[in-house]
Specification:
- It is a single chain.
- The protein has 159 residues and is mainly alpha-helical.
- It folds into two domains: 42 residues, no CATH class; 79 residues, no CATH class.
- It contains eight helices and three strands.
- Strands 1-2-3 form a three-stranded antiparallel β-sheet.
- A hairpin with a 5-residue loop joins strand 2 and strand 3.
- The longest helix is centred in the middle third of the chain and has 10 residues.
């Protein structure tokens, strides 16, 4: 069988066929949920069941009361959100609704750092910020419970 350009790309280090053929289970889980879900995909794209329910909203839990307006969020909301993402909030005070003053956090790996609530909420989990600044982001199954909730059990490096 002749390989297409797509097949060649898909078999590279970060390619999805490589994940399947070389049993990179954490990546399989991240992309498809499980190997069984990948096996259940139809052989041809034309056989795929198309998504049609565009009106249904599926809420995603972010670890805090999202019905509150930003100006009403406080230290307790921040603590819940950071814990949900696998980190710890070390600060003991926060002006309600202040998204610009830095707070002190600890990531699952024990790194302490300061960041604004806005940065943690909008840019990232806060739990990996120290590692990202160092050039490597590592996700471990026991280190970041937030990722496990979505089936992500990989160790990924960003360079």
């Amino acid at each position: 069988m002749k390989c297409s350009k797509f097949d060649k790309l898909a078999r590279t280090k970060h390619g999805t066929l490589h994940f399947i053929e070389d049993n990179v289970e954490d990546h399989i889980d991240a992309y498809w949920g499980s190997r069984n879900r990948w096996k259940a995909l139809p052989e041809k794209l034309s056989q795929m069941e198309h998504f049609t329910d565009w009106d249904t909203v599926i809420p995603i839990d972010h670890g805090y009361d999202e019905s509150k307006p930003e100006e009403a969020l406080d230290l307790d909301d921040m603590r819940k959100a950071v814990l949900f993402r696998g980190g710890k909030l070390l600060s003991t005070s926060m002006k309600k609704g202040d998204w610009r003053r830095k707070l002190e956090f600890e990531c699952p790996f024990g790194h302490r750092f300061q960041a604004t609530p806005g940065w943690c909420w909008r840019v990232g989990t806060g739990a990996t910020s120290v590692s990202v600044r160092a050039g490597t982001m590592v996700h471990g199954p026991r280190s970041i419970p937030f990722l496990l909730r979505y089936g992500i059990r990989s160790t990924a490096q960003m360079r």
